[in-house]
Write a structure and sequence with these properties.
By secondary structure, the protein is of the alpha+beta class. Helices cover about 35% and strands about 15% of the residues. The protein contains 9 helices and 12 strands. The strands form 4 sheets. A 4-stranded mixed sheet has the order 1-3-2-4, with helices on both faces. A 3-stranded antiparallel sheet has the order 7-12-9, with no helix packed on it. Helix 3 crosses helix 4 and helix 6 runs antiparallel to helix 7. The protein is elongated, with a radius of gyration of 29 Å.
Length: about 400
Amino acid sequence: FFGRIDYADKHLRLNTSTMEMIWRGSLFSQMGFDGFFFGRIDYADKHLRLNTSTMEMIWRGSQSLKEASDIFTGVLYNGYGAPKGFCFDAKCGDPPIQDDPNLFDYNVDSRVDSFIKAVNDQAKHYSTNNIMMTMGADFNYGNAVMWFKNLDKLIHYVNENGSVNVMYSTPSIYLEYVHRANSTYNIKTDDFFPYADDPWNFWTGYFTSRPGLKGYVRRCNNHLQACKQLEAIQNGFPDNKPSSMLLKLAMGVAQHHDAVSGTEKQHVANDYAKRLHIGEVECRDVMSTALNNLAVKKDAKAMDLKFCEYLNISVCPHSETGNFNLVVYNSLAREWNWYLRFPVKSPKISVLGTDGKMLPVQIFCVSNATMNVRRNMSIVIYEAVVDISSSPIPPLGYSVFTVR
């Protein structure tokens, strides 16, 4: 254990575990959401809230925005699953509602009594006479008939009993009823992270797990934004032509909490990466076509554009062969004037900017670690870093650099 660390490092560590979720609550409030519900929170936090009937609160996610960042926040009693004994999915073993009195396993009375007890047990921990009972879980409703047939019976017979009123509902309807109750709630200003199941099991590893997949998702998003921009400039392409749709779909799936988080099994991670790559390849066709069309409009020659897929390991066959032109697209709304980096065959190269003037170039040797990672994918040992500050790339535009 450290008694002392750098003050700035300590300040960062004290704050970073809280910032992401606080921002999320504040953003949801500013986006106009009426409420935010947690399926999971830290076990100790939930235990305290159950005992103090504070499962619902007002979450104030911004110290500067104050009340403007407030959002009604609730913790679900059963996570997002059904109460014990009332899972009606094919993979569950709970008894169905048997309402035929001519059969020996008639159980309406006992099932109704058990459900009303579950309702009352949950209601003890909430401040109004309205509660939300979730019905379902992961991979449920593969056979929805089983669920809804039993839920229909359950709702009918419980309401017939008259002790409680049950209805199909939504979070929005629930929020409306809670709002009508006009209760007062505690204000929470801190965060829910980090989350733990018990004293020794913290859900924090996924912040850094599968960094390769996390990095690839981020890079694919960069490509997707550029692809969408160039697609829009072209006013789209015909249905039988390449589009950004495949990459959009793959990126959407990659946002799942068991995708970019890295908590999936390896073969599933491989599938996510494969789908991203398929979409990325199609987006390259979109970008190549759009950039060539822009070039033709400027009376320039059409370009045979190739993409460097493996710059992260200093591999690009197209830059390792001698003379070539480097086309760089800037998807930002401001000019970009940073550095270009690519592997080269010779340490003696020159790079010309868009105005024909030479740009500063530094040559580095590829590190042994990178050489080991890329194995036989390339034999070049040099990498060029070009300073383009004197020849910036225009916003939402492209530049062509000549390498000799």
